[in-house]
Write a structure and sequence with these properties.
The chain is built from two helices and two strands. The protein has 58 residues and is α+β, with helices and mostly antiparallel strands. The protein starts with 8 loop residues before the first helix and ends in a 6-residue tail after the last helix. The model has no long low-confidence stretch (mean pLDDT 86).
Length: 58
């Protein structure tokens, strides 16, 4: 098995930015051969009832 490389500061910064930019959702780190190859983020946006029904109609 390949020994994992230490995480470099630019990668740590990108991970930190991804985590801080999502209020509700997920950040996934994809790893291949002990290396981070992709960072994926999915953000969920919650809508208030007033946002879904302009004019306050139900």
């Amino acid at each position: 098995m390949k020994e994992p490389a230490p995480l470099e500061p630019p990668l740590l910064e990108r991970l930190t930015q991804a985590i801080r930019s999502v209020r509700f959702g997920t950040v996934q780190v994809v790893i291949q051969d002990a290396q981070v190859v992709r960072i994926e983020k999915t953000e969920k946006i919650r809508l208030d009832l007033a946002d879904r029904n302009p004019g306050g109609r139900k």
